[in-house]
Amino acid sequence: MDMGIAGRRALVCASSKGLGRGCAEALAAEGVDVVLNGRSQDALEVTAEEIRAIHGVKVTTVAADVTGEAGRDLMLEHAGDIDILITNAGGPPPGNWRDWNREAFIAAFDANAYAAIALMQATVPAMCERGWGRVVNITSVSVKQPIGVLGLSNTARAALTGFVAGVARDVADQGVVINNLLPGLHATDRTVGLDSFEAGLTGEAAAEVTARRQLTIPARRYGTTSEFGATCAFMCSRHAGFMVGQNVLLDGGAFNSTL
């Protein structure tokens, strides 16, 4: 299927590895020039060279922290006029709700809600003026099914979901489509870290935790970054113009619900 986005320009946050990289690679495969972001310049350059070599698109790298204003300003300066925005940031640490203070919640909100909000405020008005744009916010299955040890993430991502629900419908008639993509368990560093955290609580080996958690997924495996990226690319395509303000769950069937 031709996604109809060749020649577009995308800013993909936190894209040197993991789910962000999967999205950047899938967009590049469709002929989209990509602006990669991450905290490590070395990791970014490795990813950029691989994408250039395989897909032949223009790749720009910006080493910056998306969770801070200075980092976002730097990203936007280098990104220029973009047609596609993929927001993404590492999730807050796991823990117990009894231990979290105001500072912990504010840090989680800044990283996993406000960073995406600020980037949309900075880029969506120009998309509206040009009459076309796509925004995909990488959030989490936790907005549909809260995860006990990830209460900080549950809270912040729910806030972003509420913001998007209103804004997506406000700009849909101007050719700008905004949706959220909700990952379940994927084979990423984040999942490895969470498996290790649980192993520390239960006394199991991390591999045992991984095997046990995979059995809770009807697909009986973790998702891959490439299939996550492919879903993201479709949500950015010309075919997704009637998909507005949705929360697209990609979790191998783990969330058990009729609707």
Query: Ranges with pLDDT <50 over ≥5 residues?
Result: none
Indicate the radius of gyration in whole angstroms: 18 Å
Rough outline: globular
Helix % is: 40-55%
* CATH fold assignment of the largest domain: Rossmann fold
What is the oligomeric state here?
A: single chain
CATH class of the largest domain: Alpha Beta
Distance between the termini: 28 Å
**Class derived from helix and strand content:** alpha/beta
Instruction: Give the number of DSSP strands.
Output: 7
Mean pLDDT: 95
* CATH architecture descriptor of the largest domain: 3-Layer(aba) Sandwich
| Order of strands across the main sheet | 3-2-1-4-5-6-7
CATH superfamily of the largest domain: NAD(P)-binding Rossmann-like Domain
